[in-house]
Amino acid sequence: QVQLVESGGGLVQAGGSLRLSCAASGSAFSIKIMGWYRQAPGKQRESVATITSDGSTNYASSVKGRVGIARDNAKNTVYLQMNSLKPEDTAVYYCMAISRGQNNYWGQGTQVTVSS
Question: Rounded to an integer, what distance in angstroms lies between the CA atom of residue 98 and that of residue 88?
Answer without folding.
Answer: 27
